[in-house]
Amino acid sequence: MGSNVKEEMLAEYSALIEKINIIHNHQQAMLIFTFSAAGAIVSFTVQQGNPFIVLFAFVLLLITTAIYHNYTERVIQISTYIKVYLESEAEGLSWELRASEWRCKISPVKRDIKNYMSTITAVFLYVIYLIFLLENIKYNCFELCTLLLIPFFVMLFIWHFDYSHKNEKIVEMYTRFEKNWEAIKVSKNKEGNT
Fold it and tell me: Tens digit of pLDDT per residue, the chain (194 long)?
C-alpha cells in the first residue's frame, strides 16, 4: 500500500472515530436533557395538580428515544465500515476490534438497564400520571379510557423502540451492516478487476 493511500486511510479513520465520538456526546447530552426535562415536567405536574401536563413528558421521551436509537444505528454503520474498509486494509488500526471486545465484556444486566432506560422512565411517568389522574376522577368513562390508553400506547411505542435495540438486536444490526459493507466491497473489487 502506498504512503499516500495509507495517509488517506488514516485521515478517514480519524474523521470517522471523531464522528462516532460526536454522536456519543450528542446521545449523552440528549439523555441528560430528556431526563432533566421529564423531571421538571413531573415537578410542574405535582405543583399544578394537572395530570395532563405529564403527557408532554411522554411525547418528549418518545421523540428522544427514536433519535437516540437512530444515533445508535449510525454508530453501528460507521463502526462496521471502519472494520470492513479500514481496519482490514491498514495495519495497526484496531479501534473497532477493541470496541467489539469491550461490548462482549459488558454484563447483560448493565446492557439491559441501559437499553430499557426509556421504557423504565416511561413506566415511571405513567405511574405518576395514573396517580394524579385517579385523584381527579371527574371524567366520564370514555374520557377516562382515552386518558388511560393514549399514554399507555405511547409507552408501548417507547418500549418497542427500546426492545428493537436491545443487545441481541444490536448484534444482528452489526452483522447486517458488516455483511452489507462486505458485499459492497466485493462488488467494487469485481468492478475494479474487470
Answer: 567 877 888 888 889 989 999 998 998 898 889 888 988 888 887 788 777 777 788 888 888 888 888 898 898 899 888 888 887 777 766 666 666 665 566 656 555 656 667 777 777 777 777 777 677 666 666 666 777 777 777 777 777 776 766 666 777 888 888 898 888 888 888 877 66
Helix ranges, 106-140 (H): 108-115, 117-135
Query: Which residues have CB under 8 Å from 56's CB, separation 6+?
Result: 41
90 contacts 1 by C-beta, under 8 angstroms: yes
For residues 122-158, b (16+ Cβ closer than 10 Å) or e, as one string? beebbebbbebbeeeeeeeeeeeeebbeebeebbeeb
What is the sign of the dihedral through the CA atoms of 119, 125, 129 and 131? positive
Residue with cell 486511510: 9
C-alpha to C-alpha distance for 30 and 67, rounded to whole angstroms: 9
Residue 58 has φ and ψ, to the nearest 5°, of -65, -45
What is the Cα gyration radius of the chain? 22
The total domain count for the chain is 1
Q: Which domain holds residue 66?
A: 3-193
